[in-house]
């Protein structure tokens, strides 16, 4: 036993110490978060208990308690009962020891339930010392990032392997120890030294010593200041809340996070490995499950509600497959989100990305075919590219996949051909079924004909369980309310306005002409006397006074022009309008407008055509949303609102729908109620409505004609000729 052996043991001991130190540094950082969280969580639970009427104790005890005297004594909430304690309760006339025991036991049960479910919301507009401490503690871990987490995991694994070897190798640490050791100990020591050398070589080859050192520095650095921590939280709140949920153990309900999949499929997904070596961002638990679902099931629809991070789940799948050696991937999306996709892939992964769009798209396609990477293209451009050979493309991602629900459309046929030729396909859509089950079946048909053939109207009518079971092999959907407990509140208000005399004249002209679209925008055509426009300016002014940003949606370009002019010349406290963002604005320019809006200091307004901006663009800089008129499809409004109310939003979102009484708006709201219920039944809650899908399917043309005819009859006009939607 010589110097080389002693040197190996010494180096192994130093590496072991570094690994243990890192694990300890991480544990202390986590404990700092828990310590900062506890008083905030306890206070939130206390507020919940103080809002629960004492009568709820009857529910817990199945009506056995008599609480009349307790309420008369001033203890009107469960929180008050817990605060009173047994001595105070025992002194209430007519309350015996048995009642006190039952009352406190019931109150503690409610308290435990509240503590398990209450969510902590961090208010960026009203920072307090307690929330500042929590944000600063979280920033240490967020700044350290995924590399630190990987380093901690590797450090823990190394400790488990090298620790026992160092114990066995102790005789080899000194010359005399080895001389005094018996044959068995010597043999064990030599074997341990060989194992340590192997681990040291492995660590050197993978850069582990440097990784451990950097992670320790990152964890010990701390937050530079409370202001820096708050700014970082506002920019990366999703990462902060994800860590908070993980550390607190208050994760979403497992069944909800797994989309209520049948157990046999869920178990197969859980066992699927997920390589993160090419990924630069951590995943929430439900996001990791979604990525595993795509890998395990190979050709699927990810139907997560908007705002849950479908893009990052797709990137996680791309990164995993790249780590496995796959070289070519294709993303197909609307032109409006080409820039967003390229930015996300570049920022969140180490993958090479190429835009296959525009006049040079065929040259770019040839380059992608030769060098590999992630090609990002549009539905129309895809039609001009040759379909790949079998196994050539590791993953085809189709964003806003409901755009290819019509099998007769050329874009749908192109996507179907690529899907057939690709090993794996991921359809992404927050609205997989807008009006009919048959449209959802058309998407499934491209992925798995067997599942599609088995999915009939009977499955829809049988109820949500049958529907879920039928589509489970290819469909995963989670809802915001189930998995994002930290999402700020969403308040939706219908702002009903009486039409002014000028508005009424413009509306009657549109009805007389039988022009449905003119009827919808008539309330803005006399801007100097417009009731809707006056209310819109008030909302913008109130938001500006609070320092909030506002996004204004309309279906009509001319309405947006009127609104912009009104905001420029009107009394809105100098709130700067951006846009309008319309379908005619190039994709790259759309993203730049949104970025400029988000970067503007103080209040600002973004004007956007609802169909152009309701797809793919993230607008969580806005906390006030104004919708100028009701939309023909409820999903259009859902998509638009979800652009602001999504993961990453740190402020409550207020949505104002501007509606005019007594005319087209009222009739549209009434007629669309059934459409909204249908969407909720299948796509949002997956609990099927009582009526058949076709019974509530109202096409755009039918809806327009019916409303025009009814309005002409109401206003005594029978000579108008309804026109189709423009």
UniProtKB/TrEMBL annotation:
Residues 535-704 form the Helicase C-terminal domain. Residues 291-450 form the Helicase ATP-binding domain. Keywords: ATP-binding, Helicase, Hydrolase, Nucleotide-binding. Pfam families: Helicase_C, SNF2-rel_dom. InterPro entries: Helicase_ATP-bd, Helicase_C-like, P-loop_NTPase, SNF2-like_sf, SNF2/RAD54-like_C, SNF2_N. Its EC number is 3.6.4.-. GO terms for molecular function: helicase activity; hydrolase activity. CDD domains: DEXHc_Snf, SF2_C_SNF. The keyword Zinc-finger does not apply. This is DEAD/DEAH box helicase.
């Amino acid at each position: 036993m010589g110097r080389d052996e002693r040197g190996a043991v010494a180096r192994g001991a130093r590496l072991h110490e570094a690994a243990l130190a890192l694990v300890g540094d991480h544990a202390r950082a986590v404990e700092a978060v828990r310590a900062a969280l506890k008083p905030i969580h306890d206070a939130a639970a206390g507020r919940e208990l103080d809002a629960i009427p004492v009568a709820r104790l009857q529910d817990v005890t199945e009506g056995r308690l008599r609480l009349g005297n307790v309420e008369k004594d001033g203890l009107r909430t469960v929180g008050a009962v817990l605060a009173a304690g047994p001595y105070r309760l025992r002194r209430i006339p007519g309350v015996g020891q048995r009642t006190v025991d039952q009352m406190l036991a019931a109150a503690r049960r409610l308290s435990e339930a509240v503590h398990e479910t209450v969510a902590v919301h961090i208010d960026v507009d009203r920072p307090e010392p307690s929330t500042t401490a929590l944000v600063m503690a979280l920033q240490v871990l967020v700044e350290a990032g995924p590399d630190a987490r990987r380093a901690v995991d590797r450090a823990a694994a190394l400790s488990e392997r090298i620790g026992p070897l160092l114990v066995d190798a102790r005789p080899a640490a000194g010359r005399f120890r080895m001389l005094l050791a018996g044959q068995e100990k010597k043999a064990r020591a030599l074997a341990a030294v060989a194992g340590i050398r192997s681990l040291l070589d492995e660590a050197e080859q993978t850069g582990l010593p440097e990784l451990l050192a950097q992670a320790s520095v990152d964890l010990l650095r701390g937050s530079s200041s409370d202001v820096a921590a708050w700014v970082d939280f506002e920019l990366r709140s999703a990462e902060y809340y994800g860590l908070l949920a993980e550390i607190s153990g208050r994760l979403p309900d497992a069944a909800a996070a797994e989309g209520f999949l049948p157990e046999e499929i869920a178990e197969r997904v859980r066992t699927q490995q997920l390589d993160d070596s090419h990924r630069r961002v951590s995943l929430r638990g439900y996001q990791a499950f979604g990525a595993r679902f795509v890998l395990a099931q190979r050709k699927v629809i990810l139907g997560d509600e908007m705002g849950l991070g479908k893009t990052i789940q797709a990137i996680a799948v791309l990164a995993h497959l790249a780590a496995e050696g796959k070289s070519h991937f294709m993303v197909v999306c609307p032109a409006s989100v080409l820039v967003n996709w390229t930015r996300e892939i570049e920022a969140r992964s180490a993958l090479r990305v190429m835009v296959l769009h525009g006049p040079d798209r065929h040259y770019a396609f040839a380059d992608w075919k030769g060098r590999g990477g992630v090609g990002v293209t549009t539905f129309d451009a895809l039609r001009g590219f040759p379909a790949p050979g079998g196994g050539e493309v590791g993953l085809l991602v189709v964003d806003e996949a409901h755009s290819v629900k019509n099998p007769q459309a050329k874009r749908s046929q192109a996507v179907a051909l690529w899907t057939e030729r690709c090993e794996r396909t991921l359809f992404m859509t927050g609205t997989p079924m807008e009006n009919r089950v048959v449209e959802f079946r058309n998407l499934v048909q491209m992925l798995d004909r067997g599942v599609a053939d088995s999915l009939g109207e009977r499955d829809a009518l049988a109820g949500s369980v049958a529907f879920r079971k039928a589509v489970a092999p290819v469909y995963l959907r989670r809802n915001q309310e189930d998995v994002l407990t930290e999402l700020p509140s969403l308040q939706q208000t219908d702002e009903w306005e009486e039409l002014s005399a000028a508005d009424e004249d413009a509306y009657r002209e549109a009805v007389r002409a039988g022009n449905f679209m003119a009827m919808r925008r008539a309330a803005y055509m006399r801007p100097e006397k417009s009731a809707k426009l006056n209310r819109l300016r008030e909302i913008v002014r109130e938001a500006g006074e609070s320092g909030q940003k506002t996004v204004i949606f309309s279906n009509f370009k001319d309405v947006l022009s009127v609104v912009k002019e009104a905001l420029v010349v009107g009394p809105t406290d100098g709130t700067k309008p951006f846009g309008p963002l319309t379908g005619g604005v190039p994709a790259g320019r759309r993203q730049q407008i949104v970025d400029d809006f988000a970067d503007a200091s103080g209040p600002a307004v973004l004007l956007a055509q609802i169909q152009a901006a309701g797809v793919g663009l993230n607008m969580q800089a806005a906390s006030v949303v104004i919708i100028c008129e009701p939309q023909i499809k409820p999903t259009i409004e859902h998509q638009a609102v979800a652009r602001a109310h999504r993961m990453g939003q740190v402020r409550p979102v207020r949505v104002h729908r501007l509606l005019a009484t007594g005319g087209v708006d009222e009739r549209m709201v009434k007629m669309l109620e059934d459409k909204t219920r249908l969407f909720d039944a299948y796509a949002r809650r997956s609990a099927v409505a009582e009526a058949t899908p076709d019974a509530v399917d109202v096409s755009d043309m039918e809806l327009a004609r019916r409303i025009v005819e009814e309005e002409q009859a109401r206003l005594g006009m029978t000579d108008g000729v309804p026109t189709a939607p423009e």
